[in-house]
Amino acid sequence: MSLLDRTRAVLDHAIQVYRGTPHGARLVATRGRLDQPLRVAVAGRVKAGKSTLLNALVGERLAPTDAGECTRIVTWYQDGHTYQVRARVGREERQLRFNRENGQLDIDLGGLHASDVDELVVTWPTRALRAATLVDTPGIGSLSESAAKRTWDLLVPDEEETPADAVLYLMRHLHAGDVEFLRAFHDSEVSRPSPVNAIGVLSRADEIAVGRLDSMASARRVATRLGEDPSVRRLVQSVVPVAGLLAETAVTLTEEEVGQLRRIANLSPRDAEELLLSTDRFVRMRPELGLTSPERESLLARFGMFGVRLASTMLRRGVAGTATELARELAERSGLTQLEDLLSSLFLERRDVLKCRSTLLAVADVVRAWPGPGSEALAGEVEAVMSSAHPFNELRVLSGLRAGWVSGKDEVVADLERVIGGTGGAAHQRLRLPEDAGHRELTNAATDALSRWQRRAENPLTSYELAVAARVAVRSCEGMLADLLSEHRDVRTRH
Amino acid sequence: MTKAATAPDAARAHALVDLGLRACEAFDRPDLAARLTEARRRLADPVINVVVVGEFKQGKSTLVNALVGAPVCPVDDDAATAVPTFVRHGEKAGAELWRDGDTREAIELADVRRHVVESSDGEPRVGGVEVRIPRALLATGLVLVDTPGIGGLGSAHAAASLAAISLADAVLFVTSAAQELTRSEMEFLRRARTMCPTVACVLTKTDFYPAWRRIRDLDAAHLAAEGDIPLLAVSSALRARAVKNSDAELNAESGFPELITLVREQVGGSAEQRLATEAAAEVVALCDHLETSFAAERAALADPAAAQRVVDELTAVKSHVERLTTAAAKWNQTLSDGIGDLTSDVDFDLKARIKEVTAEADETIEAGDPADTWAEFGPWLQARTAEALLSNYELLRERATELSERVGEHFREAAGAAFTRPSVHDPTPLAAAEVGEDLDLKKMRVVKQAMVALKGAYGGAMMFTLVGGMVGIILGPIGIGIGLVLGHRGLREEKKRQIQKRRTEAKNAARRYCDKITFVAGKDSRDTLRRVQRELRDHYTALAEELNRSNARALTAATEAAKRTQASREKRLKDVDAELARLAQLRAKAVVFS
Known about the structure:
The complex is a heterodimer. Chain A is an alpha/beta fold. Chain A has helices spanning 3-17, 22-35, 50-58, 127-131, 145-155, 176-185, 215-228, 230-233, 244-251, 255-265, 269-275, 279-284, 293-317, 323-333, 336-348, 351-369, 375-388, 390-403, 410-419, 427-430, 439-458, 464-494; strands spanning 38-44, 74-78, 84-89, 92-101, 104-108, 119-123, 132-136, 166-171, 198-202, 239-241. In chain A, helix 1 (3-17) packs antiparallel against helix 17 (375-388). The longest helix of chain A has 31 residues, at 464-494. The model of chain A is unreliable at 156-161 and 184-193 (pLDDT under 50). Chain B is α/β, with parallel strands linked by helices. Chain B is built from 18 helices and nine strands. Chain B has a nine-stranded mixed β-sheet, sandwiched between helices. In chain B, a hairpin with a 5-residue loop joins strand 3 (94-98) and strand 4. Chain B starts with a helix and ends with a helix. The interface between A and B is large, with 62 and 54 residues.
């Protein structure tokens, strides 16, 4: 029985036990979640660039972005058949009018005040949202108290499961508030401060070196350092730098904009440098370029200073010739491509585990808060799944590793983390092989890993904790081999 | 205030103090010259601390570098400033390390980076770094203090920054154009303003953010809600390039000319003016003393019949003033009682605050599993205790200032008789002039002089506890009692047991830490208060002795006047009037400053 099936069975039992109570309805709603896309929240401090990054991930400018603080309502972006926007006010839902201008979605609250609306749900048929529903949140540390409180309620509700399955946490520099926030977000049971469902994003990465051309290299250094920091490691899986604005623009780049950038690229490097010294200079100087001030301002708003410098330099040096090439280069250099890869290997491939985890936590919460006839048996069932399902054991060992509970030689720990899927769930990632590794290569590596970890598990000199973890690794290897074998059979049957 | 008015301020105060010193010599009062000499030293070599504070990565170090036009503070894309850097004027460029306490050590300028930038290795931290470079901007005594990012109001760094601000002459609050002021920035700003009223806000990185004007307007609105805080938008990058290429146009674009004017005139000017006012107050005090004896002599000379009454009055004052110097004097009683009360109040406050922290720590530990939270718990506890210590320090400062005012009040009341001129008819209009204003001035002077003494007493005391001492006290690790439990049975019970054990251990560690902090901080504040007591006692005892001597002079002069012949009396009367007129001139010059 797969984990998904077992979870469903537990949930169905729970629905039966709590039928007719308000909690029953909540559990029924949870059941739907198991079949829906993974829910990924984009969270972080005020002005960390959450909406901008969300737009980059969707590939359309759906979330409003602005220089001032602007997201004040928790907004869900989900896939669907029709384009529509609904607002939830207390228990009732209302359809809202919207329009798109210059590719930017503009929602008319229809007389409602932002503080009255509990949630906005934007349904938008697009491929990007089919894999995951994205949630935009108001920043924490906001000057408007209530906006910050909403994010807190969404991600860390009192005595309830979190509505999001995973989170992209945007940080600009590690603040005390960041750590507190992250810690509270991770729930109990499977593993408390667990790096299993969070990825750290060093956002607005182009600003770290204030827009110098080597900004992203600098940002990568900072991200690596943050990712190795023990207190960050225990909270997020990995930290990647992303220049959100540039990423958003890269996926929505227009030919017209490329044409405008070409004019700057045609200047001599010296003249271009003088022009791009400051935003004010860029708007004002060199009228002979044939760009109007509003055009220049909109270029700045779309690319930022770093983007204009980088894109015009790439055009001048011929790194990118066409709009398509430029878009791809910018997406790559902005860190978006790397983030998307990470999202897919850490969240999307593991979505069933993450969703089951959310579901079981929800049941456990109900059982704990409202014990009744039959709830004790239910608690036992939840615990049985939690403690025996292999994917959860992997997660538990992973967080144990990240928390520093399990220790050993550096290379052994790194190997362990990989084998149990810490860097991605696919076999080639677990075995540290290239993506195009052949079936035989994978099988050989998996067999090696299996015997390696069996030895470690049985070695009397291995510490107790590592031995326990090693047994989980053995099980992971066995699982990989079993998958590889059945894959092999499938191929043969088809022939 | 305009530049034309500031420069002569210091010069005029200087000339005034010189006049006063000459008067001391002429009238043979070296005892009165001591304080004037001190005021003169302060005027000649003023130290004006401008503390540059703000969140992480807002460009504080870059701003300081751009202000002085040299890379004195290390700048890095990643690592942040970890220790305060004091940038001051020096004929020769050089740098010094301050270790805890008073030890200093000269280092190479190139090594500054190694000591200032945060590092992961656990090398013992230095208290601060001082960099000296020859710069006209700093030549007036300006010291720019670059500080570590505050990282939220509740952090240890924020507490240390606030402690530094409490001793500063002005604060430059740095925020970048990346975003509008956040709630924690505003809270910090509010708090900083109660400790140092001269605050200016600097908006940095305007070259990079196209929307900087919007951010500026948003910030201005936030600041307007707090009162009159100037906001200046600058670009350090443009300024650095302008300095390199001597490009005046670019320099103007960078916004730095306005910032330099602000620092030089408002900050520097107000500090200079404060020093000048303090110096002038000393001169007025000198006039009081000298006039007392001349006025008494004049009264005796002008009306021989009244001479005996003058002598009688002065004799009465004499015993009164002598009592002022003894321990039984009311001001002295107020002081020792006050310090006693204050010591126990401050101690109680500290204990209550730490107790609160301990309770909160217990609650936090109880709410989670220390094995998970310990790494963050340490900094949290440190920040929380730092905050408690800071509040305690604020209480100490506030109450010590109150006490100093009360002591000053009692001293003034008791000394009033000595300052009042003899009750005989006084034909010269000058001595009777502006009695009301005179009293106010006297009160202000007494308080001001005491404040100068006070500042010396607690200068840096708490800073040490906050930055130096607290780093030395570590929370220490707890046995995690590893709980990687897998498998079916007893998972929950075993987990519970382990967590309970870890919690107990964690609570004990937290308590030990708080005890140590209480011990160190308690000793520190007792020492500070003892120093405050000593400074104030010495200050007022010296004042009483000066009064005593002035009164003795007056008594001698009046007694002699009664013995003179008619002719010599008239001649002396003319001399005395001339002296009084001269003193009146000096006083008039001094009064202009206040």
